[in-house]
């Protein structure tokens, strides 16, 4: 019997990839077939790819056997670019009848490879993409027999379809570990205010609703996911979408002028007022809420610190440094509003840096300051928001802050149950055990406090 109503958190699409590739830096840690992390053994022939067990190796063999000899012939130590290996796998799949493979997104409707848009003209006019394509074409000569490589025009169309329709496969920490193409899921369009979210179980894609949906069958023309990081102003999001996907976003959120101003807001100079100020056009003379005068020096300081923050964030795109984050946060205090996205991005970097350095108390402080901003811009149900609360709760538990840990972990549970589902490893193997530990430790601490008769909470030192 068909459901007349789909609830938030319902799984509406699950799909195996048409083709996928593990990021090279994880080859020695993850299985090339299922992407599982752990002990992996090399293919005894090519010594390049690795598998977690015999079953995965057997399942992968029909696809791997043709590339195996090519990988074996490569010079020792040479690392194949992920995009080149992905493209070679797509070409081999197509040559084995892959163009007839159907990726179902409902019981009746499906997509095939030829349904995907190649964006050929856009690619030809994109200097960076053309340069990338030409470099991949050279590498393909080492991964495929020359007669097997499609002619230039067709090869470019395959490249375009790969670029535009690939998903980044992320692990439970939302770190990109691979890339995959899903035929059915390619139907999903983008919105900066999505009503669905994509997560992964190994290489398998799962799409869940973030909102209730009325109707017995989901109309995927009304389902949207986000292709990009939402913690950016509309002009940055639009630029990223235009550069990567060749379309201009005109969603409701991108037209929201109030949010645009908030994302770039200055703090009120009074120090006590929380009103966000729009200083972009230079016309605002006083705070609309408390009437504090906005002096020229405050405008200059805001502009200077905003530019400084953007420069530092750009430098920390790949590697962040806690001391740099702390310097930015010190300069931002009283100047950037707490909903300013560049303040939030700085906090996020500081949060992750403090965790890496095992500065738990400091990390908790940064994490708690992120909560309101993440909720506002990512929405109440988002994997990044759930993961933030889970990390904060885990550290609070470690520091014996049991009541606080329970609060954070319960909030995380409500989100992760929606975004990942109760069967996902993040929910079952990470979140639920932490919740159980927090509840048990809280009860023990309460019993000890009552038993002491002094009203002083007794806390065990967690090793």
From TrEMBL:
InterPro entries for this protein: H3K4_H4K5_MeTrfase (IPR050869), SET_dom_sf (IPR046341), TPR-like_helical_dom_sf (IPR011990), Znf_MYND (IPR002893)
Signal peptide: none
Gene Ontology cellular component list: nucleus
The species this protein was found in: Anopheles atroparvus
The protein's name in its UniProt record: Uncharacterized protein
Pfam families per UniProt: zf-MYND
């Amino acid at each position: 019997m068909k459901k007349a109503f789909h609830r938030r958190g319902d799984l509406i699409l699950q799909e195996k990839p048409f083709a996928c590739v593990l990021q090279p830096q994880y080859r020695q840690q993850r299985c090339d077939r299922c992407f599982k992390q752990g002990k992996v053994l090399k293919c005894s022939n090519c010594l390049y790819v690795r598998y977690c067990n015999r079953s995965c190796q057997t399942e992968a063999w029909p696809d791997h056997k043709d590339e195996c000899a090519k990988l074996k012939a490569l010079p020792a130590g040479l690392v194949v670019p992920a995009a080149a290996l992905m493209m070679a796998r797509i070409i081999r799949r197509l040559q084995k009848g892959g163009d007839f493979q159907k990726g179902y997104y409902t019981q009746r409707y499906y997509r095939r490879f030829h349904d995907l848009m190649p964006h050929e003209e856009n690619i030809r006019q994109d200097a960076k993409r053309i340069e990338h394509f030409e470099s991949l074409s050279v590498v393909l000569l080492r991964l495929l027999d020359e007669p097997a490589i499609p002619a230039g025009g067709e090869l470019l169309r395959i490249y375009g379809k790969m670029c535009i329709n690939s998903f980044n496969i992320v692990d439970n920490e939302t770190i990109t570990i691979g890339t995959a193409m899903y035929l059915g899921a390619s139907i999903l369009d983008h919105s900066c205010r999505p009503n669905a979210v994509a997560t992964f179980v190994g290489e398998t894609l799962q799409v869940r609703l973030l909102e209730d949906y009325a109707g017995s069958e989901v109309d995927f023309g009304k389902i949207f996911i986000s292709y990009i990081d939402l913690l950016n102003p509309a002009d940055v999001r639009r630029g990223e979408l235009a550069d990567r996907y060749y379309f201009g976003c005109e969603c409701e959120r991108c037209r929201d002028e109030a949010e645009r101003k908030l994302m770039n807001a200055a703090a009120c100079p009074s120090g006590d007022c929380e009103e966000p100020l729009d200083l972009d056009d230079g016309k605002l003379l006083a705070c609309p809420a408390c009437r504090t005068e906005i002096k020229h020096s405050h405008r200059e300081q805001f502009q200077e610190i905003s530019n400084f923050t953007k420069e530092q964030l750009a430098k920390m795109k790949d590697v962040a440094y806690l001391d740099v984050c702390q310097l930015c946060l010190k300069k931002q205090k009283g100047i950037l509003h707490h909903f300013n996205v560049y303040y939030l991005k700085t906090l996020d970097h500081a949060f992750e840096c403090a965790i890496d350095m095992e500065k738990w108390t400091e990390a908790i402080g940064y994490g708690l300051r992120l909560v309101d901003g993440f909720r506002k811009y990512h929405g109440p149900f988002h994997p990044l928001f759930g993961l933030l609360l889970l990390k904060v709760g885990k550290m609070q538990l470690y520091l014996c802050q049991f009541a606080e840990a329970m609060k954070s972990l319960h909030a995380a549970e409500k989100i992760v149950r929606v975004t990942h589902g109760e069967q996902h490893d993040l929910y079952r193997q990470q979140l639920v055990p932490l919740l159980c530990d927090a509840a048990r430790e809280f009860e023990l601490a309460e019993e000890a406090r009552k038993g002491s008769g002094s009203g002083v909470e007794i806390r065990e030192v967690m090793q």
